[in-house]
Amino acid sequence: MTVKDYSSAEERALVRMAQQGDLAAFEELVARHRDKIYARAYSMMRHEQEALDLAQEAWVKGWQRLGQFQGDAGFGTWLTRIVINLCLDALRRQKRQRVESLEALAEESGGVERQMPVVAPNPTAGLERAELRQRIDQALGQLSHEHRTVLILNEFEEMDYKEIARTMGCSIGTVMSRLFYARRKLAALLTDLKKPDTT
Amino acid sequence: MDLAAQLKLQAWLDGELPEAEARAVADWVAREPEASALAEELRQTRRALAGFEADLRLPESREFFWSKIEREIARRAAPAPASAPRGAAILAGLRRFLIPATAAALLVLAGAVLIRPGGAPTRGGGAEVEMALADAGAFTYCDYSAGTTLVWFSYPADN
Predict the structure, then answer these.
(1) How far apart (Å, rounded) are the C-alpha atoms in residues A9 and A28?
(2) Which chain A residues are Cβ-neighbours of B10 within 8 angstroms?
C-alpha cells in the first residue's frame, strides 16, 4: 500500500491495519489526531514541553495497547482518554511535590464560589477570536489543576458528572462543587482580565 | 440562594437532572431573577469556552513528532539484553566467592603448619622455615620428618 492510500483510508481500516502491526497506518492515525491529543495535554498541563512529552507517551502507549481497542468509541476518543489519564498521573505527582496554596484549600472546603457576585454583562462580548482565546488561556492558567481538569473534562470532553468522578477518582459531589467553582472563577477572571483597559 | 440550590441549577444546565426535577428548576429560574442571572453567567462561560481548543496546534512537524514516537516504540519493543543462564550466573557468583575464600583457607592452613604453639620448630621434630641470606625474597620450608623441602619467592617468578 502506498502512502497516498493511507492518507485517504478510513479510520477504521487504519486502526485494523495498525492492530496487525502496520506502523505506517499508525503514523497516519497520529497525523490525524496529534493536534487534538496535544491540545488536551496542553490544556491540562499548561506547559508546552510537558504537553509534548505526554502526548508522545500517549501515542506510544496507544500503539502498545492497540489490541485492547474494541472500537466502542472513536479512536480519537480512546486515545484522548489515554492522554487524560497520563496527565492526571503527572498532575498528581506534581501535587505531591508542592505545598497546596491557601486558596486551593479554601476552594476544597467550598463556599467561596457561592459568595462571588454574578458577572454581567458578558465579559467576552465583542472580543476578537484570538483575544478571547488569549484571555481564556490566561484565566484557565489561574485555576488550580483540579478545577481546570474538571472543566476540561466537562466542557471539552463532554463527560457527565459520573464519568468525571470516575476519571478523577473523586465523588460526584466534589465534581459538581469543583465545576461550579471553576466556572464562576473563570467568569470573574475574564471580567478582571477585561479591566486593564479602564485602569 | 444556598450552595445546594446553585449546584442544582448548574446540574440543570448540564442536563444532569431527571426530567421532573429539571422542569421544577426551569420554573424556579424563570421566576427568580437571582437564579436567572446566575444561569446566564454559567451559560456565558460555557459559550466562551466553546471552540477554545480548536486553535491549539502541536508545535512540531509531523515528521519530527512521528520520528520520536517511532523511535520510542522501537526502543520498547527491542528485546532485553540477553542475560546469562541462571545456572551460569550462580556459578559466577560462587566463583567470585570461592576464589578468595580458598586463598584465605590456604593461608590459614599454611600458617597452622608453619607456626607451632609452644616454641620454635625443632629440626629433629618436624619442620622449620628459613630465609636464604643470598636472597631476602626467597623462603625455604623444610619438613624433616616427611623429607620435604619447599622454596617460595616473594616476587614474580619471571624476575
Answers:
(1) 9
(2) 176, 179-180, 183
